[in-house]
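Quick start: read one record
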Amino acid sequence: MIPPDFIDDVLARTDIVEIIEPRVALKRTGQNYTGLCPFHTEKSPSFSVSQDKQFYYCFGCQASGSALKFLMEFDRMDFLAAVELLAGRVGLTVPEDRQSGSDESARRRKTIYEILDQAAAVYREELRGHESRDRAVTYLKGRGMSGAVARDFSLGYAPPGWTNLYDKLAQSNYERDLLIESGMVVENAEENKTYDRFRDRIMFPIRDLRGRTIAFGGRVLGDSKPKYLNSPETPVFHKGRELYGLYEARQRNKNLTRLMVVEGYMDVVALAQFGINYAVATLGTATREEHIERLYRLVSQIIFCFDGDPPGTAAAWKALQVVLPFMSDGRSAKFLFVPDGEDPDTLVRKEGREKFELRLDQATALDVFFFSHLAQDLDTSSMEGKAALSKLAIPLINLIPEGVFKQLMIDELATRTGLDAEKLLKVARETKPAVAGRPRDVPVRNDGNTGISLSRRAEAPLAMLARQPELALELDDASYQLLSQVDDCSLLAEIALAVRQHELLSPGLLLGYFHGKPEAKLIRSLIEKEQLLDVSALREEYIDSMNRLLHGLEFQLKQALNYPLFQKPFSELTAEERRQINDLPRKKT
């Protein structure tokens, strides 16, 4: 038996649309998604999926259930395999000792949610009544915050002092341990001290789709660093998948049509103050595939908002590359660059809602930003410049799903280069097509003109590795040797193995080792690139990205080896063949 509480927790953290849509073509109709039922033959769609209720139902054959039941019925998975797949997607592990420890583990997760909600209540109360509250209230009023918006976002205040929250909530050793596990207090075993993680900060609760508090972001009131501090990864919080303000945006807008991605908590709250109730923020990480998938489940248009300076443009370009594989027909992505010295918070207070939304309406379309960015260092009036633009653009355009939008991008490239669109389309089809879900190679643009290409999935961890080579020690040789078997990851593996074998634990040593080789130019360009992540966040981000990369590679290899099994009807599979299918790792998204 798997504890019911554990299954409930897995389902609560699973978006049923993300499970069903890769298997059934769905179309958003009002609050729900509809499509042709996969469980009986029909010509008109009667299969409905509710994202709010996390439930599917067919009005034709009455098939119904949760994401778990869908996997069991559609993928012909047994109960345990289906639970393991869903649990793995949300960062949970099915309890092995299901008789003794599993019930306690499930109860503990539940109590983590409860203690985080209690912490949110404490912070709200401190904002209303603590003796130091005036500093926080003055700050919020200075940023134009109303009491109604502070209430809707459940804003709070962590006062100065080392143990304010701890003293209020740690009434027993059990609660003390929960506070530590939830990330709200920090334990220093060497000094035998336990203290609050958040002190003298405005507190922003981060809530999941059910409205439960899963973490916090804190904005410092004084001059201490960092300016913003997030909760660490915990059993209920994985920052690479979450978006601040998404719960509030869905509560305030029953019919969302677009979502704006900004960089900070205060931007989200300030925009809501002015009636722009559809802004969300990533939690200290760059925009990732998980974010894009979640956003496009809800709306057809995403507007990315960045500073207009070089770091902002670089961040926008990274976001564009992430969004390209999701640009199926009917979807839209735009880029708003705010003036120098401004951010969405200050700009909306200066201009008001009407003018700010006019900026959104006139934001730069994806195709305009795409071609202007690629051409910025090229002389596109020359043959060489046109050829270079084609070489840079085609692999990226190949990331776009087949359809009208992809064809229009080819047509635009043809217009800019004077080349025949049909010939460009032929070249695009011949340019390293993706297999088994593997992204096409995407050249890294850098001043070194190294000629070395990296895929989008390998560029991010390699950039972190170049800046902080000791990150290579976080994985073993076997992991990097697996990566070395894949073309677009082989350079990443080579550099990581060199760091481990020759103790190249600084950027200088790394550059010295590759001196005179083509790799040196690429490594230098990655070191000199603007780094959006704080150094303290690199280790966690590197491990997360590498684990996702390795899991994807293992999935591809094993699926390829067992591909013939998937061509046989289920009724013809032997018991051993069914076991082999169930033993395959399930791809994380």
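Confidence is low (pLDDT under 50) at residues 432-451, 585-589.
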